[in-house]
Amino acid sequence: MEVRQIIESGDIFLGIELGSTRIKAVLTDDSGLVLGTGIHDWENSFIDGIWTYPIDEILSGISSCYKSLKADIKEKYDITIKQVKYMGISAMMHGYMAFDKDMNLLSPFQTWRNSNTEIAAGELSEDFKFNIPLRWTIAHLYQRILDKEEHVRNIDFVTTLSSYIHYMLTGEKNIGIGDASGIFPIDSVDNNYDEKMLSIFEEKIKDRNYPWKIREILPKVMVAGECAGVLTKSGANLLDKDGDLMEGSILCPPEGDAGTGMVATNSIAKGTGNMSAGTSMFAMLVLDKKLNNYYEEIDMVTTPSGDPVAMSHANNGTGDLNAWVGLFREFSKLLGINVSDGELYEKLYTNSLKGSADCGNLMAFGYFSGEGITKLNEGRPLFLRSPKSDFNLANFMRAHLYSSLAAVKVGLDILTEKENVKIKKMMGHGGFFKTKGVGQRYLSAAINAPVEVLETAGEGGAWGIALLALFTKHATEYKGLDEFLKKRIFSNNSGSEIMAEEKDVDGFKLFTQRYLKAVDIERLSVEKFAE
After folding, report:
1. Nearest CA among 197, 152, 159, 209 for reference residue 179
2. pLDDT per residue over 425-447, tens digit each?
């Protein structure tokens, strides 16, 4: 059957992911082949000390993204999308969205970037004997309680961005277990919120006399393969302002970008790992058993099927690096040189390979926001060098590329050195890996293990959630999500694998040692700047 007929029949699968700087839509056929894409670029706002996205920008953003997808399909195949059998929504994990009984937003949406929950996260981690990161939803909720914010009494629903969009499309307050694991600790046996910890939290806030119970205000947890709702007429009109899209699509459980990254890189099986590298950085390893201890630097989350995953998550990734590339873009224009963004990144990244293995004693901290792993509550981008540093363009770019990975490496080192977790191979995806052989080589140097990047890695989480929508249709045909991915999606998917040279491994280790020593300088700069 030709593509136009497939689209006309509606046997197509739509995934939309709301990332930090871009909303992306991917449309696939029944084999997972990408038929078309749509994008909408956006950026978070820093308002009254909070990183946020206004609700109207969220809703208009997904409509704009869908419109871009429609245009792409129309241009390629001369057909208008009218029916989609299955679809799914994904978004950046964590953060805080609180609504009253009429689904009015009670407080500005706080994204994962906000680290204003130190007291709450510390208390909960101690009470639960389980690491609660600063960005988790329960940390935000408890911090609002500690701060005695008036809106807390009126809460009827607390959730994440993906679950909110899912509700707007279906009217159902559901969430995928992977995204749920960034709201509240998960019991991977029961595939639900941890009952013991729910009871501890309830007891902890009992004297506040709120009219709600924690179990009542969180979204329902669902696993991959389940039907999580059906697209309503109002939901269809929200996506497609032209009114062409029909209601009735089946939606898979909404997921976080960590889970869709696992799916997009075929990193669901136990013992596998993947690195999502973009505005934020996170590396995940699927475990075959629980960790012996809990660590502030390590998040325990789950796959979309509920298996435990150890995550090293850094709030800051390539944001500062992109800003420097933007400076070079301005310089190019000043000289009258027309260069595309793709060529600019490729030239700068590739040239960094000529730099010293330890970056010539240059140091960069790309902290646009606070960083939990290195214990910094506020962001302050900083570049350091000494008079004896080897200051050239190759080392400059290499230092920024290394720095993008450094905080994540701190967490991974805990897993490998203290918990004896073996990294057999890491799958890479995200913008960091787009320039062939550069980011991939540096990550390999950071973890001293092979790194593979698949040909499809560039499609990212939007493709991952489209595949989860596809799995909803075929779940009964396979033993699980892992088998579905291996046999149906990745059986013929090739990629490139790189193992860094020993000198690069040693160079990255030396860079990391300097990085950790220089953290105190970064912390001092934050304190001085705030005075």
Report:
1. 159
2. 899 877 888 898 999 999 999 99
What are phi and psi for residue 32, nearest 5 degrees?
A: 90, 0
pLDDT at 290: 78
Spatial distance between the Cα atoms of 345 and 329, rounded to a whole number of angstroms: 10
248 burial class (0-12, 13-18, 19+ CB within 10 angstroms)? middle
What the block records as the tokens of 135 is 């960005």
Q: In 10 A of CB 479, how many CB atoms?
A: 8
CA distance 426 to 440: 10
With a pLDDT cut of 90, the percent of the chain lying above it is 76
Q: Distance of CA 172 to CAs 16, 35, 221, 293, Å? A: 17, 28, 12, 36
Q: Are 139 and 132 in contact (CB under 8 A)?
A: yes
For residues 315 and 100, give the distance between their C-alpha atoms in angstroms, rounded to a whole number: 29
pTM of the model: 0.81
Average pLDDT over the chain, rounded to an integer: 93
- What element of type H or E holds 495? strand 495-498
Neighbouring-strand partners of residue 453: 496
Cβ neighbours of residue 56 under 8 Å, at least 6 residues apart?
none
Residue found by looking up tokens 């696993």 in the block:
223
Q: Rounded to an integer, what distance in angstroms lies between the CA atom of residue 515 and that of residue 407?
A: 9
How big is the CA angle at 498 (ends 492 and 503), to the nearest 5 degrees?
175
Q: Quick check: 367 and 381 in contact, CB under 8 A?
A: yes
> Has residue 455 got a pLDDT over 90?
no
